[in-house]
Structure to design on (228 residues):
């Protein structure tokens, strides 16, 4: 199983709900790069997309695309291509560096709110060594939290028995303070399927156990890296 898929993609839906949907463009890749679209009053906001045949039809069922969002400095993915097709900007946090210049599409910056989407935004991680800039999104009315990278449900994030885990690089010092302040009904993540039930409890458990379960998590990550 390759870490990152390439070539012909095959879209698989995940995280379907009344106001949105997610997808995996390469369901068989180990990284399980997840993309999401959230509908608010007929406007569709697309988060960290990986393109695939059928994505436009998936979005059209929700409404009109209002913007494409990059939530992590490493998640440029196919944001520019999708934004260009739908004639909308790519939205990048005002404090993120080294991202906008690499996007071949118009860029809009945002601060504590994502335009008029209703999403509050906040810094999950902002450091230079090792480089990591990640912004999270919370929509109070929808009780929905979007975390692009810090937590995920894919195998190499999780210790044995964990449905949700902290990124291996963040486990020694997980972002507990910032993420534990939210109690979402739904959690959407950038790697793997999201959490649609007891999301707040699952998030707090993952953050609380990050260090305690570190040896098991690293073993799981190693197995993922060396598996075929």
């Amino acid at each position: 199983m390759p870490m990152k898929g390439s070539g012909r993609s095959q879209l698989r839906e995940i995280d379907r709900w009344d106001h949105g949907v997610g997808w995996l463009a390469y369901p068989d890749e180990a990284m399980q790069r997840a993309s999401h679209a959230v509908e608010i009053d007929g406007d569709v906001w697309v988060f960290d997309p990986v393109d695939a045949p059928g994505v436009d039809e998936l979005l059209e069922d929700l409404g009109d695309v209002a913007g494409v969002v990059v939530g992590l400095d490493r998640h440029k993915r196919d944001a520019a291509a999708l934004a260009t097709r739908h004639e909308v900007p790519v939205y990048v946090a005002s404090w993120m560096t080294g991202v906008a210049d690499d996007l071949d599409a118009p860029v809009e910056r945002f601060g504590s709110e994502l335009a008029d989407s209703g999403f509050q935004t906040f810094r999950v991680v902002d450091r230079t060594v090792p480089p990591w800039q990640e912004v999270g999104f919370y929509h109070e009315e929808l009780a929905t939290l979007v975390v692009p990278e810090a937590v995920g449900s894919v195998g190499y994030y999780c210790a044995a028995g964990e449905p949700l885990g902290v990124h291996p690089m963040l486990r020694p010092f997980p972002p507990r303070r910032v993420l534990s302040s939210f109690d979402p009904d739904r959690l959407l993540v950038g790697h793997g399927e999201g959490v649609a039930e007891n999301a707040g409890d699952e998030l707090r458990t993952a953050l609380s156990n990050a260090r305690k379960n570190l040896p098991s998590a690293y073993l799981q990550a190693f197995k993922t890296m060396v598996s075929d």
